């Protein structure tokens, strides 16, 4: 690994001869519109693209800055996982471009695609180079990671094979294949699946990777055993990637490996009723993001295979973690109390390293990545008609997910301890316009009422005072999941599942919620229409008009069956808004909420730095308006 580095210095990719490829333009219809000034996920996606493409290093092939810290001077840091994080950003940026039509920094996408191909080995797997990236071992123990490769003739010492990263890359590659429509990316996907299958260690119905999620080896010792570790669950990204790849290209080996991995994860990291477990002696807490992502992969696998028993397990696990979060706001701690570790399903060794956060009682904030995965589970189950969690999605989207996104940056320069200092920067660090480049990013450790936890300098501060880019990637793709399912069409019938602003080829939705209980649907394609009403509304309270004429409707559960509508017609639903005051306890502290509909409009005590839920204007009942550029994509990608 090089110790000297100059901006633009070469990186030791495993493959410097890459084929030509295409990055198809984002086609669609764009037009101006005056809309109610309420939550618009497409606009949020536009902001997210800014953050995800700006927080990259142009002198290192647009590798992302993984960490951002605010004080004393805002600084960005790169580390070993940069290419891993890049794969998450690649997925999220493509999805957010489909939502918004934004082409900001589109050159970054092309560079990322080139890097992906340069990391593709002859074994079909995506490799992570260390040579030319001196920041790689700044935060990771080189003996723990690179040491796993020593003496193994199948590996180069300057290349790592991360099962987790390859699992995520399967999702990214599947998205490229869906957009490209040619064999090019499909062949690469099959190669990654084959490589992951050969890399896996099989034991009966189980499969796992050795020795770790960050670096695995081929042809391990014949007496190899699982190395249980609190981060072992990170390999569940392989399961999730495999299910995505199978849906994309129907390659059967993906489903076979996914079944073995699913069985191992279920019996290792979960109780029989779906509760979480951490693979660490004495651990009393579990990482929400890692476990929720695993359940998301299991849910998709169960739907693909028709495994009803596994599906019931996934529902139970969703209900288990739902009981650990605040259902009104969506605030979910990064770590939640769980059952203690006993033993894995296969006799193995326990890694001697441990993490204090899993055993102590210190503060741990809301990791948006975990909330995003939980919302993902709710959406998959609801969209499939198995459960009805649409109101969970609505509450958590409007509150914790929406308010945890940075839309202003000046506050960063007024944090306690902020001052101009001269920093000696190491390779992979930058202080260039940090706060401005972060606009559109999400928090990694928020409090119930503030983006910034304000714990720097105390014993409770475990994660610095900024954020990790992975949460922005997770929130960005979650925006797409929600946006895509606001409406769906089946057999010529349009169903509106969430009353949020949305432009689509079937209809444009203007939501006045929470100013008032009104939603207007401008029909673009003739057919049937059903609209789901929010949880606080009773069917008898809903008035429906089509072109200003009252229409009597039937009901199917929470859906108003409006019947046939014609292109060009305006459908209006009106219903009462409800103002509520609630007291909640989070992390042993009491907060008082003022809610209008599902939206928190005030919280007490108020945040100090970048406070959440300062939405008093909604209480007026008089809608504000804004002009936006709406985009209706020409692409339909089931994600």
The global form is globular
Residues in helix, %: 25-40%
Task: Specify the number of helices.
Answer: 14
Computed structural class: alpha+beta
* Sheet with most strands: 6 strands, antiparallel
* Rg from alpha-carbon coordinates: 24 Å
* Estimated share of beta-strand residues: 15-25%
Total beta strands: 30
The end-to-end distance, rounded to whole angstroms, is 38 Å
Strand order of the largest sheet: 18-19-20-26-22-23
Q: What are the segments in which pLDDT stays under 50 over at least 5 consecutive residues?
A: 142-153, 456-463
Describe it.
A hairpin with a 2-residue loop joins strand 8 and strand 9. This protein has a six-stranded antiparallel beta sheet with strand order 18-19-20-26-22-23, with no helix packed on it. A five-stranded mixed beta sheet has the order 16-17-21-25-24. The protein contains 14 helices and 30 strands. By secondary structure, the chain is an alpha+beta fold. Mean pLDDT is 93; it is low at 142-153 and 456-463. Helix 1 (41-54) packs antiparallel against helix 2 (82-100), helix 2 (82-100) packs across helix 3 and helix 2 packs parallel to helix 14 (469-486). The two termini are 38 Å apart.
């Amino acid at each position: 690994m090089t110790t000297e580095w100059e901006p633009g210095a070469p990186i030791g990719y495993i493959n410097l001869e890459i084929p030509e490829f295409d990055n198809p333009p984002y086609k669609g219809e764009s037009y101006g519109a005056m809309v109610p000034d309420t939550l618009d996920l497409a606009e949020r996606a536009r902001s997210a693209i800014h953050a995800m493409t700006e927080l990259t290093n142009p002198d290192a092939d647009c590798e992302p800055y993984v960490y951002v810290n605010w004080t004393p001077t805002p600084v960005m840091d790169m580390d070993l996982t940069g290419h891993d994080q890049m794969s998450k950003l690649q997925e999220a940026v493509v999805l957010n471009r489909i939502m918004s039509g934004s082409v900001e920094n589109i050159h970054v996408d092309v560079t990322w695609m080139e890097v992906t191909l340069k990391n593709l080995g002859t074994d079909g797997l995506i490799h992570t180079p260390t040579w030319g990236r001196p920041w790689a071992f700044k935060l990771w123990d080189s003996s723990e990671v690179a040491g796993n490769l020593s003496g193994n003739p199948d590996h180069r010492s300057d290349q790592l094979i991360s099962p987790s990263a390859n699992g995520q890359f399967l999702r990214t590659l599947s998205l490229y294949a869906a957009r490209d429509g040619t064999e090019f990316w499909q062949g690469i996907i099959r190669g990654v699946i084959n490589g992951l299958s050969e890399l896996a260690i099989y034991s009966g119905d189980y499969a796992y990777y050795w020795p770790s999620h960050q670096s695995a080896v081929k042809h391990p010792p014949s007496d190899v055993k699982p190395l249980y570790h609190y981060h072992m669950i990170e390999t569940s990204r392989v399961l999730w990637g495999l299910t995505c790849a199978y849906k994309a290209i129907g390659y059967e080996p993906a489903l076979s490996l996914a079944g073995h991995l699913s069985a191992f994860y279920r019996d290792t990291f979960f109780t029989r009723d779906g509760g979480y477990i951490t693979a660490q002696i004495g651990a009393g807490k579990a990482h929400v993001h890692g476990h929720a992502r695993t359940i998301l992969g299991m849910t998709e696998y169960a739907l693909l295979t028709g495994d009803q028993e596994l599906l019931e397990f996934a529902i139970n696990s969703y209900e288990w973690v739902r009981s650990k979060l605040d259902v009104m706001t969506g605030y979910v701690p990064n770590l939640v109390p769980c059952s203690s570790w006993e033993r894995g399903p296969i006799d193995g060794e326990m890694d001697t390293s441990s993490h204090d956060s899993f055993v102590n009682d210190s503060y741990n904030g809301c990791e948006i990545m975990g909330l995003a995965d939980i919302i993902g589970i709710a959406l998959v189950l609801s969209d499939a008609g198995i459960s009805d969690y649409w109101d969970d999605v609505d509450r958590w989207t409007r509150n914790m997910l929406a308010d945890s996104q940075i839309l202003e940056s000046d506050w960063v320069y007024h944090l306690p301890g902020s001052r101009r200092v001269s920093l000696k920067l190491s390779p992979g660090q930058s202080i260039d316009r940090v706060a401005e480049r972060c606009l559109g990013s999400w928090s990694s450790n928020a409090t119930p009422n503030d983006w910034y936890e304000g714990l720097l300098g105390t014993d409770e501060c475990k994660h610095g005072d900024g954020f990790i880019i992975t949460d922005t990637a997770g929130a960005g793709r979650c925006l797409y999941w929600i946006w895509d399912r606001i409406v769906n069409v089946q057999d010529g019938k349009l169903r509106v599942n969430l009353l949020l602003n949305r432009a689509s080829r079937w209809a444009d939705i203007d939501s006045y919620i929470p100013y008032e209980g009104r939603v207007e649907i401008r029909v673009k394609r003739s057919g049937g229409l059903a609209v789901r009403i929010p949880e606080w509304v009773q069917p008898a309270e809903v008035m429906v008009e089509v072109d200003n004429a009252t229409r009597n409707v039937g009901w199917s559960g929470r859906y108003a069956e409006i019947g046939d509508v014609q292109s060009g017609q305006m459908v209006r639903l009106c219903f009462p808004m409800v103002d509520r005051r609630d007291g909640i306890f989070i992390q042993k502290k009491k907060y008082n909420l003022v809610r209008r509909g599902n939206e928190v409009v005030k919280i007490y005590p108020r945040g100090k730095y970048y406070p959440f839920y300062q939405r008093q204007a909604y209480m007026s009942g008089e809608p504000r308006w804004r002009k936006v550029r709406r985009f209706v994509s020409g692409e339909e990608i089931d994600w």
